[in-house]
Amino acid sequence: MKKLINDPKKVVDESVEGFGLAHAAHVKVNPDPLFVIRKDAPRAGKVGLVSGGGSGHEPLHAGYVGYGMLDAAVPGPVFTSPTPDAIIPATIAANSGAGVVHIVKNYTGDVLNFETAAEMAEAEGVEVRTVLVNDDVAVEDSLYTAGRRGVAGTVLVEKIAGAAAERGDNLDAVAAIGNRVNANVRSMGVALSACTVPHAGVPSFELAEDEIEIGIGIHGEPGRHKIPMENADGITDRLLEPILADLKPASGDKVLLFVNGMGGTPASELYIVYRHAAKALEAAGLVVERSLVGNYITALEMQGCSISVLRLDDEMTELWDAPVNTPALRWGM
Amino acid sequence: MKKLINDPKKVVDESVEGFGLAHAAHVKVNPDPLFVIRKDAPRAGKVGLVSGGGSGHEPLHAGYVGYGMLDAAVPGPVFTSPTPDAIIPATIAANSGAGVVHIVKNYTGDVLNFETAAEMAEAEGVEVRTVLVNDDVAVEDSLYTAGRRGVAGTVLVEKIAGAAAERGDNLDAVAAIGNRVNANVRSMGVALSACTVPHAGVPSFELAEDEIEIGIGIHGEPGRHKIPMENADGITDRLLEPILADLKPASGDKVLLFVNGMGGTPASELYIVYRHAAKALEAAGLVVERSLVGNYITALEMQGCSISVLRLDDEMTELWDAPVNTPALRWGM
Amino acid sequence: MANNAALDAAWAIDWLRRSAAVVAENRVHLIELDRAIGDADHGENLDRGFSAILEKLDAELPATPGAAFKLAAMTLMSKVGGAAGPLYGTAYLRAATAVGDAASLDSATLATALAAARDGVVARGKAAVGDKTMIDAWTPAVDAAASAAADGAGPAVVLDAAATAAEAGAVSTDPLVAHKGRASYLGERAIGHRDPGAVSSAMILRAAAQAAEASS
Amino acid sequence: MANNAALDAAWAIDWLRRSAAVVAENRVHLIELDRAIGDADHGENLDRGFSAILEKLDAELPATPGAAFKLAAMTLMSKVGGAAGPLYGTAYLRAATAVGDAASLDSATLATALAAARDGVVARGKAAVGDKTMIDAWTPAVDAAASAAADGAGPAVVLDAAATAAEAGAVSTDPLVAHKGRASYLGERAIGHRDPGAVSSAMILRAAAQAAEASS
Ligand SMILES: Nc1ncnc2c1ncn2[C@@H]1O[C@H](COP(=O)(O)OP(=O)(O)O)[C@@H](O)[C@H]1O
Ligand SMILES: Nc1ncnc2c1ncn2[C@@H]1O[C@H](COP(=O)(O)OP(=O)(O)O)[C@@H](O)[C@H]1O
Ligand SMILES: [Mg+2]
Ligand SMILES: [Mg+2]
Ligand SMILES: [Mg+2]
Ligand SMILES: [Mg+2]
Question: What is the ipTM of this complex?
């Protein structure tokens, strides 16, 4: 394992410290318990947005703290959800009195820790709503599993719910639009290589030189199945097919197409995937109205990508376009 | 070699096509000869900025086409400079009559091809100035070599010269500020792994599991020397030392600190490097006024990073802060 | 032989220390188990949590078993994270509630405390036996403890029965498809792998039995 | 034996076709040489350029050697990129200028054309012999051609002498530190590696000699 790190146990603390130094204009870092908060939080009258989860998915979540997106982010250890003792003070700090929405990716650990934190924050007088993100169509039979995982759709939920909060929507409205985004987004990923968790020191799974892992999550956990390596267009089709089968968009639907890099894949390859995906969606009668391409929710240095398709309505599009000013997503200001 | 590509010979064409589809709001793609041009180019009265070079460094250069930065970018084959037959029409298309500045990284191939193109564009009536970027302190004895390479400093030159052009500076002034940025920026890189050029199919160099390559360029070419793996703080010191020795900043100087990822390194690691570099600069009496952290000029999927330090003056800072609206760098609008 | 002696705070503290030791020793093993069907952090997470417990014990010793369980609950809840943190945290918290401020625990109380702990995990995680989770270790352990206590066994024997049943329960997860937790995403590919949480549960219960044995 | 026959357009076309073939055959070899001390693209670049020349030749055949050189120059300039594109492009362009619209080339004209080509590379790239570039193949080739022509050798012999000298010149780059091009960044680490551009230059000159041999 070769990584630009010092002590593997200090990876998250040191990285978030560096993040705070680099983005002092956007955020403040609370070192212990560790959370990142918008510099001007809480903003009077505004619903607070708090997310968090295991580290290793950067820029998610801390990169999205700022105007028009999150008020606070709580980074756990690498691939391990944070604990209530960090989520609670972040929630309190993000609360202006208008309540706080927790955006939680659907993993047992995240759900349990945010659940406890929400209960305890409510006991301290903060009204909390939770938006559970579970967009990953790689997980089948969700009745017999922990349910679908929250993956790349999380970025879209955070952006759009964040814009709703910024324009002054109330607590229930912000949670509702977050849930609406989640209900309309589906994602599926592929890995060409595994990633190495710093404290584990060895890659999370094995892939032969001619194998890829389809339906991968964002924690280096194995995916749906291994298949022999294919070309980019073929892989793109394999990712899109279950997304469309599940989303069942109608011809003429407007969509946002999001091709996300897992951390170790060059931008040029993401655009090759985007190219074919955009053409395939258009061929399926959809209108690709918005796009996002890049490393927005990663799995350390894993090679691979995910595709997400979000069915847009006019309000979502408007909120997507609304100004956002965070370290990792910025436009309009 | 596992890559999200189709035909290795079509990597650049397909990738740029996808880029054009994803960023149709910012750019138009001319497929043959291949160049990317700002959607509203040429802008009346504005000096045009054109850059280009081998592909594989994305988002450089096409990602920086847009308001406040480049008017056109000319992507060559992977790691191979583009040819005059593409540079010339891009130059002509970027010319509003106010002339065009070529921003060229100092490699024999880029220099020769841009030189020819500049001559021929001038023959067609376009006034051309060239800013040669050569910020890489890894290359010693530049008298006995092709000279210092242009690396990450290029991004800073393109941003700041782009802002100067956008505010209406004339041809010589834009070239002058570009040269001033180049004169005040120094960079040095490290690789933890090599990258694989699609048409070569094998990694560009060999590194043992406990070795790193110091002074690496952005073409997978070997660097200054291999050393045993060290921790992030140690590596950061090794990169900063020759930068400061060469830049010779005075105590109290204001600087921009840029930690650039080579493509395969997680953001979290870049922030660990940033953290130590920022502290080291402050300890050296410098004031870190601005920062940039991320994958801005890459070498395919290479793991590693570069550090750049730009000595700022007030005008540079103002131009750095000026609005920019490109696919890969955006703020203020 | 004092095998029937009720277990006091010293036992509870020794249990926690032994748990910390066995988790530290098996950190890599638990990471490896989790790497196969999860995300390679279970050993790291528990080690972080139990190391923190050791630090707290260095600062101040709890006066009753219930206080020791509560200290463990709060520390694991705030240091472990992931799925295991809240689940183990809830287990210890429910055990603490079950034993109240009793100075020492007899066999029946121990069996009740284990059942309360298990019920807490089920309340939070909604797993049933056969779902390939720590419940596959806990439920047989709880049953074995209850029947040993009903048979009049002393605390050390009750805990030994629980640990032995938990160990068998952990092994029983090998052929299962998972229906809860991260391993559930794998479908059939989880077959043949042992659930890390069931293994760590068995280790911790074994530590409890050993502490009882040592205190007797 | 027609060894003294001047070389015409057919020869020039054959030379380009043979060059394309040898570059295609050695694409990987040239990539490998460039991977060691450069950026692993020299074979790919030249192959792209010479394949494009073949396509142009399929469309229309140039009528004079000069026209063939000009076609090569323009195609390489616009298809090869990198350092080699402008350098080879300039070489062919200068050769085209040197031979004008002569229908065929005698030994003296050939030697002059080679010298003009080399001078073009030097004008663009500023390399001297010993800098570990294609000039280390070209300059001995030019010298050998000039002295063969002065000795009254026919065109095929002149080109054979040039190719042989270029091959030796390429080998002579092995022990050198590079002072131009990408390999110059490597310092001492370039020692022991052969310069890819010198190797491709020798291949192309050998193709010229073989075409002359075949036309005789
Ligand atoms: N719903 C659940 N009920 C009971 N135990 C569970 C549940 N989900 C997960 N577990 C247990 O947690 C263990 C994984 O813990 P850990 O690796 O620390 O957390 P994470 O899965 O969040 O990385 C599993 O091996 C399993 O025994
Ligand atoms: N300044 C120069 N003068 C002469 N030849 C040069 C010069 N620079 C590079 N070369 C030649 O070009 C070759 C490399 O070509 P190529 O790999 O196609 O271009 P690049 O270096 O741009 O990738 C070198 O092996 C060398 O022979
Ligand atoms: Mg985990
Ligand atoms: Mg090249
Ligand atoms: Mg785990
Ligand atoms: Mg090369």
Answer: 0.92
